[in-house]
Design goal:
Layout: H1 8-17, H2 22-68, H3 75-147
Helix pairs in contact: 2-3
Length: 148
């Protein structure tokens, strides 16, 4: 009866001939983790600043509404109060939208800077890993050829 050949030893020998350097994977993971930390910092700072802008805008709007809701002695005062509120609301909207735009601009600039730096780091890591792998494979091939 025929038995199925056991390729375990063959596979082990083949894998031993082409060693894998786990440190390059660890370095890639560390680089990615550092990048994620920096991106998270950018996002959290933007969220914090946006929340501050929104809270201030809301507080200012409520204060303007309080002025508008006060009882007036003349009917024309109600019209003036509503007009003043609308004018102030438009002005606040313009100011706050400009503040949000500044936050977005800062996030965009920081993200581009991080991506460029990460691209450079990844490129350097990849180049180093390829060079090291080439040397290891060449050395393994020479050893295999010398063993024959």
């Amino acid at each position: 009866m025929n038995t199925t050949p056991d390729f375990t030893k063959v596979m082990q020998d083949m894998m031993a001939s082409f060693p894998v350097d786990a440190s390059s994977m660890q370095n890639a993971f560390k680089t990615q983790a550092a990048m994620a930390e920096k991106m998270s910092k950018v996002a959290l700072e933007a969220a914090e600043k946006s929340t501050e802008i929104t809270a201030k805008w809301t507080k200012d709007t409520i204060a303007k509404m309080a002025d508008m809701s006060k009882a007036k002695s003349e009917p024309t005062d109600y019209t003036k109060s509503a007009t003043d509120f609308a004018s102030a609301a438009a002005e606040m909207a313009a100011e706050n939208m400009a503040a949000f735009a500044e936050v977005a601009k800062k996030v965009q600039m920081e993200t581009v800077e991080l991506m460029l730096a990460a691209g450079k780091d990844f490129s350097e890591d990849a180049t180093a890993a390829v060079k090291k792998a080439t040397v290891e494979v060449t050395t393994a091939a020479k050893k295999a050829a010398a063993a024959k």
